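pipeline: protein-struct stage 2 | run 1193 | Pyruvate:ferredoxin oxidoreductase C
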Amino acid sequence: MLSIGDAFSRQKHVVPVDGNAAAAYVGYAFTETAFGYPITPSTTAFELVEQWANKDHRKNIFGQVPTCIQLEHEGGVAGSLHGGSVAGAVASTFTSSQGLLLMLPNIIKMKHAQVPTVIHVASRSLISSIGTIECDHSDVMTVRASGANMLSSASNQDCHDLAAVAHIAAMKCQIPFLHWWDGFRTSHQITNVELLEYDELKPLIPQKELDEFRERAFNPNHPSLRMLAIDSSFHFQADTAAAYRFQNVPQIVQESMDELAKITGRQHHLFDYYGHPQAESVIVVLGSTSQNISEAVDYCNAKGAKYGVVTVHLYRPFSPEHLSKAIPKSCKVITVLDRVNENGAFTQPLHSDVCAGFMAIGDNRKILGGMFGIGGRELTPSQAAEVFKNSLSEKPRNLFRIGIVDDLMHTSLPVPEEIDMVPDGTKQCIFWGLGSDGTVGSNKESIKIICKETPLYGQGYFTYDAKKSGGLTRSHLRFGKKPITSNYAIKQADYIGVHCINFPRVYPVAKELKNGGIFVFNCPAHNAKELEKYIPKATLRQLYDKKAKVYCIDATKISIDCGIPGRINLIMQTAFFYLSGVLETNHAIKVSKDSVEEQYGHSGEAVVKANIKAIDSSIDNLIKIEMPQEWGQFDPTPISRFANADAPELMKKAIFPIFELKGNEMKPSDLIPITARIPRDGLGSSKYEKRGIATNIPVWDADKCIQCNTCAYSCAHAVIRPQLMKHGKGPEGVKVLQSKKFKGYDFAITVSAHDCLSCQVCIEKCPTKALSFPLATEEVVTKAAALYDKFAKLPDIDALREADPALNESLEKKKWTADGSQYYKPLLEYSGACAGCHETLYAKMLTQLFGPRLMIANATGCSIVWSGSFPSQPWTYNSRGQGPTWGNSLFEDNAEFGLGIAAAVAHRRFELKGIVERFIKSGEKCDPALMALFTEWLANYDKGEKSLPLSNSIQDILKTIPQTTGLFGEIQKRYDLFVKPSVWIVGGDGWANDIGFAGLDHVVATGADVNCLVYDNESYANTGFQTSKASPRGSVLKFAATGKDKPKKDLAGMFLQYPDVYVASCVIGANAAQTVKAMKEADEHKGTSFIDCYCPCIGHGVRPTMKNGHKQAKLAVESGYWPIFRRKPGQKVVLDNPTMKKEKLADFLKHESRYESLRKIDSKRQHDLQELLGKDIDQRWQRLQELTK
């Protein structure tokens, strides 16, 4: 397949690429030193730069291979950019959002340093107490005062063209440029882009200015000083002198645009106007939304309107003269739209600039301001038409919002009925898929095939929910004979593919299908009657009314038969090509097969053959469904799956609508309760979601079960649980076992079928094969769900413990064992983690051991996505309403955030202790039982486990006493501080080893009573598996495409140097009992503890799937790859795997693609690096052995 790599050999070519790739291609050309750090959504751009430099050794425009270096965080990137620039190299980077803010101090430093640095930004919303990774302009607008020049791209082609302009202009004016485009909508959307040859770009280098820049560089042959501390008497004058150079920037940028236009034929201006030459109303806007407004301009002008739109390219320095000239003199009203909400500001940045600028130059036309698109919300052409309508109304609304119904401040324009303004002849397709089924990958390939194999223009845009590999994805594909400029979700689809059997039950999958459209569903139905089992009647009525062409294909069964269970992407892609007619079928199949080697070659020949077999099996298994007239009689009103849910009002009002993809319809007042925090009524929402995406589910066989609970503590999503019930009180007609551990109780294993992800770990781990794994057919799932519901109606473990002190005592004794812990309700359930995830195993275990008193500070990364993404909240609470309290600050400051929590709670509890002591001494009358509890509590004030039952008993009595004054009244106010919390600072290895290491090291050194736990999957998994300092030697990752050549950072070994710190290394998948013991010891330690936890991960390429993650975990321990140990302060290290079997290492490595894939690239390098890895492991083992003596 054609890739961006072909850009180095083709002339005047057009390729389908995303905006990140287009910008990276040009950025690479003009870069000598590149520095980067992964952050969504800019990461893929720097990945390409790193690959071209360090793996492909491609030359840039200067005939060099750029130096490309990954840093520990974006602040470090900015420092290196600064250093690289002042040393005479042309330097660049790519970043987004909070990453850009970390660079701000150095951008300010560089603004007067006379350096041609370029920072490319995929713009993304800044995260506050709530946040999204989608686009708005809050990041770039926050740094607008930095002094960098700011250039905005509005399309993928702009990313290519204006990246060149940014670099050329930066060299000419010797001032840093910030070049940005819309994150995701432009950064990840695939469209046709013409890429220039580097030989064509080379003449644009301003050699004179470049030579002058190099002459100023750091060099002892012509020494200089930078960053002088100066006296205030002349600072103002010096600053003015430095600012003088900005005067010519607009002219320089326009000249650079003109020079590029001579090559491309695409003329850019500082402000590009599109519309009627005598426009009466004009919108001014930044970014990709200008193209949506252009569609509205065309549509409305064809009906007699006189509208226009100005796309702002050069935002800093802002030139009102150029903007005024760009707008037709006939324009009566200018509406400025900002994609940022600066709370507390009277108006927004662009509107403010236009108003002030036009006043300064004497342009007195009416100027309105509006706000749109916050957090990724798109401005549609219909909404743009409403903005034009407002501008020419008798009393136009100013400072408005568009796109929502603002029922609080009443600032919004009406939300209009959507009109399809997409150019005639454009075909539009939507594909509903799962993050793990390959749908997105195949659709990216489809749009590339269409663009290459036909004369059509194409566009591919992809949306994801906040879950990991099992989350909902929606692919939006457009193609047509005209250039596609529709930067918004498809409203009228010609083709809809639904790739998961449960989606019609939970999502409005047919809502966007146009009349006469094609609807293809992955399910086993052969006729209309069978299809009625899988699609709600309201949706069937919708299909009938729209005269849809309905097809079914059992892609899941085909994938299983072909040996690639669940990977249905190529099967559904083949069906798409066959039914859409966009390509001749045989040719489409040939092209698809050709792409298989490129996509799956790294996974081995067997996988390639399996995928080709799946393609060949597709068309013959496609079944057309004839819609009966009966469907036309069905009630068209959808029935909410939450209609009868027994849930708090907050769930019904603010969470369930989002589950049903109705977030766009919600009003601000609906969301007031969750803007600062999610209160208890919003926790545990994941249990209502019931995604039903499993292809197979486990079914318990009581006759084979030995009650070991291995399946429960191995289940990443808390789907499988042991349940106790009074003997003889189990569900009628259901076989249960007499409990081996608790007299007078029966035992069963329960399975929540609708929450299972089919990872198969429980099947692999069960020692007696007491779990079967049948296909998740309608009958199997229905039966399993009904059985689960029966068990759910029984008294839960908390109720049993409260009613039976003997059981409670027995449970408490067994709590600190792997199997005994599983009888406690997991307060992390049904998370958004990948199937077979190991991070959740540790987190779930923490909740079962410490849940009612657990506090978690969680670093940004994978773990905040699977545990902290609204609306699906997996953190929940027990029958007393107690459970984990969880929070996230930033990626870089999590350790300090956790320290702050611990310090505040300790301070408040110490205050309470003093009040209780004074109350006892005061002699005030008090319930004797309560006084006794106070006394006992003081004796156990700092003992976590003992403080919990005492706290509960004290609270129970306090609740019965009316609020009073005095010391007792102060105690009543602090009723929730009696329990000593267990504070855990958790995060991934990228946080702990890199961006957050300084903070983590400082917190560990303080000796504070906190517990630090690292989910170590040895990479930056959340941003796409880039290398971190935790990545071992020889592993193939992004930023280490030919295998990392440096050893893994031994974080636990480093913290062993602190004698007063509890340190442990754990692998729960290999030895859950040791993990439980380490967690218990860490919690009991009066000081800082650190636990490094190994987490096999989907990104490791565990073969054949993550069902073998636990086997890999075991091999990791046995081979010495990951030794497990514990060290209490003042004691020797205890090695919990006392022997190392070196021969096991080869077996471990060959079962992971991250190690094995290097064989295809460079088998000698693989051998050499793995030999060095073995030595690294030996050296670590020897160091640990010394510490045991």
